[in-house]
Amino acid sequence: MTDIGKAGQFQMGDRIVNRMGYGAMQLAGPGVFGPPKDRNEALAVLREAVERGVNHIDTSDFYGPHVTNQLIHEALHPYPRDLVLVTKVGAVRGADASWNPAQSPSELTKAVHDNLRNLGVDVLDVVNLRIVGATHAPSEGSIEERLATLADLQRQGLIRHLGLSNVTPAQVAQAQGIAKIAGVQNHYNLVHRDDDALIEELARKGIAYVPFFPLGGFSPLQSQALSEVAQSMDATPMQVALAWLLQRAPNILLIPGTSSRAHLRENLAAAALALPPEAIVRLDEISSEQPG
User: DSSP for 46-89?
Assistant: First the structure.
């Protein structure tokens, strides 16, 4: 059994978590909508993740909607004392499975209460404000009113810590003038490296950075170099991509997702994968090789 502790630990709010965590998004049905294909397997994945040392699970009530939070509650409640559940608010799902912004004070407040109810807790460990706009990519603009709404719910005792998702460096700076930020969750991987400077800045401040889409997400990364490094190390491309992230910066926390126990074990094994310097150099070159 892989010791995920080999990947180290980092602080998330007032808690110390293993850097190898788990993302629950894929437990919902196709398109992150509706019930899981195999409910028993979904529950088993959650239980095995925790058994193997995962104490940071990423979720949201708009996954499903409600599906992943209800699965987490069924599989793991009452929760282990060291388990940190990180959720996010800022979107709702349409009946056609569309992703729609839900960023008004009333919508954000409702989302927090939905997460509390479906997770079965009195207070949420960490709530990320997910900025949703016309595109999936971050876009500039003030987030003051939205974050202030969550900060007020934090003062009411419903949220322990606040974080951000899908944000720009300017929005991170603005947020830090409004509330203490426990973590930032953005799109980042071997190719998508817009946040290099932000990661370094957050590391200096002791703030966690949580990358999503480690292999490209909706447009999977196709890289001969990645495949060759993986083959040379008798590993999968995903394992190498995760190991590269772990070695990229000490404040990076991983949340690879899967709906399969076999795939979960493969992902967690990346915690013990040490990339040699020559492999890191080759992997670092991938971003410059991609078309504009």
Answer: HHHHHHTT--EEE--TTTBTTHHHHHHHHHHPSPPTT-EEEEEE
